[in-house]
Design brief:
Rossmann fold; 355 residues; four-stranded mixed beta sheet; alpha/beta; binds nicotinamide-adenine-dinucleotide; single chain; seven-stranded parallel beta sheet
Length: 355
């Protein structure tokens, strides 16, 4: 009875028209939950995600246009929520370098607005925050990485199984600082105000409904350049490694954390594809060439600030806490994104491409 009353209240997703947010909203609605999506629609393409959500889920999803920097608007949507997934953000390191104050206001201040709205107006509601691997900084110096094939690997033993949550924090770039500050506020609000708060430090999430650009969403961006037949710029040597996680697996993790919030409140978890789903930039280009039968033309430019030469998450802590593990192998997941991008950006040719 209590549970059904609870489920009459919506889950609030800030940034819910974005790539991860709309996939989360769709999954929640599929399991019968009401969802309120709060987004200022500033990311190019996300208006389409809002339309997609409404067309699939109708009245289960309410879309509220608003800005996370506006504390009054945030209180209005937080007040009635059963729980909060906080994803609204300035998402690009490049954007943060161009306008660090804007980045701070959205990512740090926006998160504090959300936490304060919960603390003062809905203190039992769980909040789960979208943090980032960027809070760990560069992790390895040039002497601590070696080239194996077409990727970097760390030579230091502590990273042999990936990066665990106890790696030292070393915020790098304004984006790293603003998300890192927000990450620590969320963690601390669980401690000092006993909020049901948890943090997911995500690595590279990819999949359908991702409008990737050169600034953020590199897997989708690389694929899109290939579909459009346009050259692709690699910043650095292309041997950079990330562990990639398909968005449906990421959604599974977020829901598992929500469903187990009492057990994991106050905790921070790394969320990525782990060792099994690690891939370098050049390896992704090889994979796209293999699937599409055409090699994109490449340009090389200098490293961008804050870029990690290697990052792979350890995901066993999250796995043992909430019983989650990735289900979609990288190659299969990449095909699902490519198929979506081809359908969205090259409808004339999509039918001819067998992915
Ligand atoms: N995609 C990844 O690989 C990844 C990795 C680590 C962390 N993250 C974090 O996950 C979250 C979601 O990322 P995503 O890839 O879905 O990005 P996204 O850009 O698709 O989604 C972010 C959404 O926030 C909205 N937004 C931006 N500024 C806002 C504001 N001031 N007020 C309200 N809404 C605002 C945008 O319009 C967009 O819809 C972000 O917090 C991001 O930092 C993503």
């Amino acid at each position: 009875m209590k549970e059904s009353r609870n489920r009459d209240r919506p889950i609030l997703i800030t940034g819910g028209c974005g790539f991860i947010g709309c996939n989360l909203a769709d999954a929640l609605a599929k399991r019968g939950e009401k969802v309120t999506v709060f987004d200022n629609l500033s990311r190019a393409g996300v208006r389409e995600n809002a339309q997609w959500l409404k067309s699939r889920q109708g009245d289960l999803v309410s879309i509220v246009t608003g800005d996370i920097r506006d504390s009054v608007s945030v209180i209005k949507v937080v007040r009635g929520a059963r729980g909060v997934f906080h994803l609204a953000a300035q998402v690009a390191v490049t954007g943060s370098l161009q306008d660090p104050i804007d980045d701070f206001e959205i990512n740090a201040r926006g998160t504090l607005n959300t936490l304060e709205a919960i603390r003062l107006h809905n203190p039992t509601a769980p909040i789960i925050f979208a943090s980032t691997n960027k809070v760990y900084g560069r992790l390895v110096n040039d002497e601590q990485i070696a080239q194996v094939g077409r990727r970097h690997v760390p030579t230091v033993p502590q990273f042999a199984s990936g990066v665990a949550e106890n790696a030292p924090l070393d915020f790098y770039s304004p984006y790293g600082c603003s998300k890192g500050a927000a990450d620590q506020y969320v963690r601390d609000y669980a401690r000092v105000y006993a909020l049901n708060a948890a943090v997911l430090r995500m690595s590279c999430i990819y999949g359908p409904r991702q409008f990737g650009t050169e600034d953020q969403g590199w897997i989708a961006h690389f694929m899109l350049r290939s579909i459009l037949g346009e050259p692709l710029t690699i910043y650095g040597d292309g041997l950079q490694v990330r562990d990639a996680l398909h968005v449906s697996d990421a959604v599974g993790a977020w829901l598992a954390v929500l469903d187990n919030i009492e057990a994991v409140r106050g905790r921070v978890f790394n969320l990525g594809g782990g060792q099994a789903n690690a891939i370098s930039l050049l390896e992704l280009i090889d994979e796209i060439s293999r699937i599409r039968g055409a090699v994109p033309s490449l340009l090389f430019d200098k490293w961008r600030p804050g870029d990690q030469p290697w990052y792979v998450s350890r995901i066993d802590a999250l796995g043992s806490a909430v019983g989650w593990k990735p289900q979609i192998p990288l190659r299969q997941g990449l095909q699902s994104l490519l198929k979506w991008l081809e359908g969205r950006f090259a409808p004339v040719y999509a039918k001819e491409l067998r992915v």
